[in-house]
Design a protein that fits this description.
The protein has 57 residues and is mainly α. It has helices at residues 2-7, 12-54.
Length: 57
């Protein structure tokens, strides 16, 4: 699909639509990465608290 776009002459409107979809994809990816990082941090924190509790700290 990308190769097809590369060899076709795009009108301004088509190029703008592709750029817009790329922006949306990058925003979704950034949000997903941030959410995944927060969830991972919470899971690690919870695991440490459980371990600390089990060890009688």
């Amino acid at each position: 699909m990308l190769m097809k776009f590369r060899y076709e002459l795009l009108t301004g409107q088509e190029a703008e639509a592709i750029a817009e979809s790329n922006r949306v994809i990058s925003n979704v990816t950034a949000c997903f990465g941030m959410c995944a990082g927060i969830i991972l941090a919470q899971v690690i924190l919870l695991a440490l608290l459980l371990l600390w509790g089990l060890l009688g700290g």
